[in-house]
Structure formats: C-alpha cells, structure tokens
Specification:
Layout lengths: L15 E3 L5 E3 L4 H31 L25 E18 L9 E17 L8 E3 L5 E7 L2 E2 L3 E2 L5 E7 L1 H8 L7 H19 L2 H19 L4 E7 L6
Parallel strand pairs: 6-10
Antiparallel strand pairs: 1-2, 3-4, 4-7, 4-8, 4-9, 5-6
Amino acid sequence: MTTSDTDRTDPADTRRIPSRLGATRWGGPSPVRRGVLRLAATILVAVLLAGLALLGLRSVVGWPNFGDREIDRSGPAVLTAMRDLSEYHAAAGSYQIVVDLEQDAKFLPDIIKGKRVIFLAIGSVDAYVDFRKLADDAVIVSQDRRSVSITLPRAQLSKPTVDPDQSRVLNRDLGVIDRLGALFSDQPNPQDQQMYVLAEQKLSEAAKQVGLTGKAEANTRTTLEKLMHSLGFTDVKITFVDASGGS
C-alpha cells in the first residue's frame, strides 16, 4: 500500500514527517497533549483563586474554622539590668493618629503589585525633667534660709508608647503578588512593624506641636514652689536652662 509524502509515519505525540527531499521534520504536540496541558493550567488557576477566596472569607467571617488554638510556650522573664530613676514626669499627653502608608510598583498596577495600610495608632508621650543633670550649684540657699534658687535642666520628651491593645489596622489592601508572597513568608505582614515606627515618630511630633515640654516645666515649677514654701522658704526662684548651660 503506497502513501503520500505528507502521511504521518509516527503516531506518537512527537511526529516524524518525511519531506520530499528526504529530510525529516518534527511536528509539535498532539491535540490530546495540548488539551491535557490546558486542562492542568485551568485547574491550577482555579485552585489558586479558590485558596485566595477561602483565605479572604476566613479573614472576614472566621469561616472555615480549622481548629486553631493558642499555646503559650514562653519562658520565665529574665532580669538583665536594673537602674535608678531620677526623672520627674511632670506631664503626659495621650494621642490618636491615623497612619496611611502606601507602597506601589512603578510599572505595575496596584491590583498586581502594591500595598496600602491604614493604621490607627493610640499612644502617649511623657515630658519629664531629668534630675541627674543637676549641677553642684543647682540649689542655692540664702544665709537666712528664707530664699532659695533652683536651676533645672529643661524638660524633654520620653520615647512615645503605642498601645498595642487599642491600636489596630483599619484597612489593608494588597496586590496579588504581595498576597501570594505573604502565604509563604514567616512574617506575613512585615509592614506592621514599620507602622509602629511611623506612629512613634508622629506621636513625638504631635507632643512637640502642643508644647508638652512647656507644660511639664510649668508643673515642675509649681510643685517645687509649693514644696519650698512648705519648708519655710518665702522667696523661691526656679530657672530652667539648656544642657549647655544657657537659659
């Protein structure tokens, strides 16, 4: 039985077809194999979409419940250092700040690659006078012990404290790439730590704007004047100076 030059001689997926000049050319995958690959790709995409939908549903309504439980395996506290305190905390401010941080890619839309987190930070800042910086002649008493002059360093702000129990993320938008990356990361939300750092900076700026250190100096002056008067001094002078010694 004779066959034409275009007849297929190999029924496998990769086919060898003889040409008129005697050379052999190879054909591509068969339709069956292409269909299998297309089906596998479709199933993979469907599984990924279903997984993302399931995670989103769980974060919103708490379903499904996989029997999650919390086990505290923390060890006992270890004392590493002790120090004496000589700071007079004369004023404190409580603040509420909204931090809105967005990170995006230059050449990709936000839905593919991008992050935006809106964080409500609730915290406090103290203003204090450090008595450790008192000079040897900081307190001068008159010979008749009726007058006293006290020179103090200016008040300064303490490190802001963000309350983790009251602070929370109001909204978190992630692109597809960032959301998939969070699934395989030991720190799914590393930007949360950055939000706390930014919140501390903004709390400190807010304390400076409202003049919290000035309030602390005024409260310290009032407290010391009452104390000195109770000790019998009639003339009390309180002066605040910079660390360099200038008033």
